[in-house]
Amino acid sequence: MRRFRPARSHPSQQSISSRPARSARPSLSVLRADFTASLVVFLVAVPLCVGVAVASGVPAELGLLTGIVGGLLTGLLPGSSLQVSGPAAGLTVLVYEAVQEYGLGALGALVLIAGLLQLAMGALRLGRWFRAISIAVVQGMLAGIGLVLIAGQLYTLVDAEAPGGGPANLAGLPRLAADTAASQSALTALAIGASTMALLVLWPRWGRAARVLPAPLVAVALATAVVFVWDLPVARVEVQGLLDVVQPPGGADFARLVEAGAVAGALGTVLAFTLIASAESLFSAAAVDRLHDGPRTDYDKELMAQGAGNTVCGLLGALPMTAVIVRSSANVRAGARTKASRVLHGVWLLVFAAAFPAALGAVPIAALAGVLVHAGWKLLPVKEWRPLWREHRGEAVVLAATAVAIVATNMFEGVLLGLLMAIAKSAWETSHVHLEIVGLDEPEGTSASGSRRPVLVRAVGNATFLRLPKLLDQLEALPRDREIELDLSGLRHLDHACAAALGNWEEQRRGPEGTAQHTAPSIAP
């Protein structure tokens, strides 16, 4: 079959099929590009893996372990060719709460179950259905995660312990500010964290340098050097060793999840892991596809690849894994051509974790908190909010309600509320119905018998229970002394509630014994 190609178009607007096909055997230039890109992704991944692990309340090596699995296993599997997987800031809050509730050993069991669910959903070809999730709910979910993440990391930024969940952390910020102002060590940690955030913002503006060294690596490396040289009194990452942190879940860990009173919470955590990890990975894949002209993502295979990665992470007792847009975009911009770049990034993570574990012990926690506060801020849809409010106010309300619900309650309940609001909003917007009234103002004596003709009322649209009150108000407002003929043939949908209500209205328009001064409406289905 011949494909249509426009006669004239800008190169960036050409279809994928119009570009030259790549050779099945990678050339030396492709391998060189993948090797370079893998080093860039590795440098981006190290501070993020460590920072996410520390913020999640688990050993730093577990973050690196998740990144290694994301590169060596998920990177080899089919799905999306260029996106990179690892621990993500979006799951930090949920992981922290799970560890506090069930213990570090049970984390592997939760991640393992979530990975098996992802494998099942991929096998059932449910990956593409994640694209049907309202973008407002996803943005609201990320915004809520960002707010909770920022509120919690502000405490870590000054080497303090967060008091609890989202509401407690927000309520404690005034006291945190007062305590920080009175503590020299807290002010020192704040200076380290604030400098890290400033460098994260300013470094990308230096285009040539930013292409060589990623901002997170530069910011954390400089903060580490300053703390080491001046021996500043700030908290640093605790090092245990890669093999020492591997804790496969045992029978006691699974038993802890099914204890009386814990089943519902554990189930909610597993579902939240599954939903968020799957949605974030597949939305990331869609975004990465727009950045390159290579093969498109197979969503079902990508979901199975993520499930396989999370299954292995669960067996190792590591953090849950998602595809991460920060690392994925860095991979594409660095010139990656095949999946070899993300596999090699996993190799470099393994070499670093095995050969240089002591290097982590010099990293100040305040610098990692600065990285995560910056990451949390980027999760907030600051630039998108104003145009969304102007053009799609209902979507903006769903986004804001989802974010607020996550901060006020928890991840699972907040996302569930957002999904319900999105469904209700769609149902309300699609259930438009209006009445076309003909002959209401017709004078007497216009028919052959000298009486007025019946008033024709024609309903058009979708009649659902959401619009029923307004529909009945309009019908009740019709004059009682006129014969009414109701025509429902213009309705595309009539639900049971509306049909029953219109039948009752018809009975009320009849006379006392079914005869009357009014003719029964003719309801045409």
TrEMBL record:
Residues 458-519 form the MlaB-like STAS domain. Residues 11-21 have a biased composition (Low complexity). Keywords: Membrane, Transmembrane, Transmembrane helix. Residues 516-525 have a biased composition (Polar residues). Residues 31-402 form the SLC26A/SulP transporter domain. It comes from the Bacteria. InterPro entries: MlaB-like_STAS (IPR058548), SLC26A/SulP_dom (IPR011547), SLC26A/SulP_fam (IPR001902). It is a multi-pass membrane protein. The chain crosses the membrane at residues 35-55, 62-82, 102-120, 132-155, 181-203, 210-230, 303-326, 347-377, 397-424. It is found in: Membrane. This is SulP family inorganic anion transporter. It comes from Streptomyces sirii.
